[in-house]
Design goal:
The structure is a homotetramer.
Chain A (H helix, E strand, L loop, with lengths): L4 H32 L2 H8 L3 H7 L3 H20 L8 H21 L1 H13 L1 H27 L9 H20 L7 H14 L8
Helix pairs in contact in A: 1-2, 1-4, 1-6, 4-5, 4-7, 5-8, 5-9, 6-7, 7-8, 8-9
The structure holds a DNA duplex.
Keywords (chains A, B, C, D): DNA-binding, Repressor
Pfam family, one (chains A, B, C, D): TetR_N
GO molecular function (chains A, B, C, D): DNA binding
DNA sequence: CATGAATGAGGCTTCATTCAT
DNA sequence: TATGAATGAAGCCTCATTCAT
């Protein structure tokens, strides 16, 4: 027994140190942005020895990705929401709801998302990580479209993946706009437009 | 007096030097990417004196933006194409055509566009420049939508700017995909799906 | 009392740990070379605690020398071979044989010898260790020369130590060449030439 | 005219700076040895800006090799000495003379040669450089042997390259001994023994 | 207008070693 | 004996930019 418990104590210590570094990292990233942040700053903020950071993280990217992943879990939760509409209206409503959750989360985490956006452009690793997230969303959306097609709710001559991609891209870009605080439109208006175009298109249907 | 003929010669000289630098810049950017390119490299490639580059460009961004602008003119030409459809079908066709031009240009200039993409993420100035281009496209698309609405071809309870934005964003993202060579879909298929969703939506219209 | 049986167990344990470290050391040294190998790597490979290595070895050199000594025992065995030739031809043959053993052993242990060579250049301690080995060889060869002189087989106006030195040095250098895989000559040819020059010289004797 | 001469002035300046760095380099290397010397030390000693050293040298090795090459020129001069003996005695004498020059130079440059020796063991580049020097000597000696064979002064069933190699190696090792101040023999004695063994061998010729 | 030698701030990273348990 | 988290000194190197000519 005494051979195992002491290690737990040590491990606890180690976990604390790592947490301290992550917390410091978040703080510095939020304050200085991704590019300008240096490992030194994080270390100083964390009040850790210089080498210590390198025990836990290979470099700045590595630390940031860990930080980012915490956040992305929340996005994944939204992506995985079930989607089984029974009518066209029902679908419309569910979709609007999903978009709402997605955009709201981004806005709520605005500060961190701004850093994420910067990091995507600068670091190939972070970019990769973001692509994974995109793909996860797109895949899930494609499934939903497939379901709607099988229920004869959606047009069947369209490739679910391609539609999912275009749809997600619009959402993502509006999301970045909101995160940047640069949108001149209200979130509700954005959602309304996105959803209408997506479900019903811009033009009037041909009158038979 | 002495400012007339000799200065013309000098100006000629100056223009030549600048061109030499821009050409070298393009070369190095294409080879090394945006981040890894250094002013020193460009200077060496241009076979110019170290200080000389600073006569013409404030820094790397500055030089790059000049390079980028040459390319963007071509995009503007596409954006400015007239759009005055008379029927729903006509509109559909014209839109598809526009998308085609847009994506084709990007693919044709793929190499430079890849660098542009990288630069957008890294340099705030380049990012700003790209935003200008986006806005120009969006503004023009909004005009077109407005026209379609006035012709009673398009739904009128939608804000042209907002629709234009969403529409452009989808197009842009597929464009980057194609530029990255990472799309698993043919350009024709992409265009077809984009246009259908945009004009007619994904779901069947309510019957009755 | 309690120092008897339990301590034996402990000692057993200790010996095991040390062996584990030495084995890991050999592995890492062979893979990464001397300079690039770090104590940390060895520790990780040995699956031992960080501090543990310091219980047994002062540092990298220390560990390496222990490893090296195992190998050097084999060289000593060759050096100690008896040498009591009765004729010039007999001597020639015995010498050739000795050289053969020496070079063959080095080639057989090539991988480790490469590391040894690197370590000699980098670490003063290892260098010292190698000098001991040289001296042991030279001393033994000097004895042999002395014996040959006493038997009136060898020239007597030559200092055995000096001759031994020059002789050993040639051998050693060819040995390193073979170890480096950089010799363009066969081992047999090398042995033949070494031995002939050593015993009979390069030039024809004076025809009196 | 005024377009060309100013550059000469600048170039002069640059050459001075480089010399300053080389001089500082020599100083620091002699004082601290190869491994312990850092670029920073050299820069401080040279009273130059930090980046300046990197304008002229890629790194420590690079600077050292330049320093080393100055010295090696002197060795090359010895290696290239003509060798066209007419008799066995003549050859013996010329060889002894050559050895004398070689060892004397090394002893005269003892301090620098000690650093060179250290550097050979530590830096692959320096090691390579030294190998070049060895090969140059060996090649030249092989030529000389070939000449002696053609004059029927030397045994003809021996491969000149192989003999040259063995001969040079003995010389080199004694050289390092002298440089290390670790030889217990006088240089004259060393030369005498080396030359005798090389030309006449250790053993008496067969009496027939 | 053109030059190019000189600068130095400042980031990155490694690793031997300690010491409390 | 054994452990392994924590340390921090120290070296490396790049590159934008200046300024005297």
């Amino acid at each position: 027994m005494s051979t195992k418990e002491p290690s737990t104590n040590r491990q606890q210590q180690a976990i604390q140190t790592k947490k301290k570094l992550l917390k410091a990292g978040r703080e510095v990233f939020l304050q200085s942005g991704f590019q300008k942040t240096t490992i030194s700053q994080i270390i100083k903020t964390a009040n850790t020895g210089y080498g210590t950071a390198y025990v836990y993280f290979k470099n700045k990217n590595d630390l940031f990705i860990e930080l980012m992943e915490e956040l992305m879990i929340k996005f994944y939760e939204i992506a995985e929401k079930p989607f089984e509409p029974t009518t066209r209206e029902n679908a419309h409503e569910m979709i609007a709801n999903q978009v709402n959750l997605f955009l709201s989360l981004a806005v709520k985490e605005r500060e961190m998302m701004q850093i994420v956006k910067e990091a995507i452009g600068v670091s190939e690793e972070v970019n990769q990580e973001w692509k994974n997230i995109q793909e996860r969303f797109i895949k899930r959306i494609a499934q939903d479209i497939h379901y709607a097609q099988s229920q004869n709710l959606a047009k069947q001559n369209l490739d679910p993946t391609l539609v999912a991609r275009g749809w997600f891209y619009s959402n993502e870009m509006f999301m970045w706009e909101l995160v940047d605080n640069e949108s001149h439109h209200s979130m509700d208006e954005i959602i309304r437009h996105l959803t209408i175009i997506y479900t019903s298109g811009l033009y009037f249907q041909n009158q038979f």
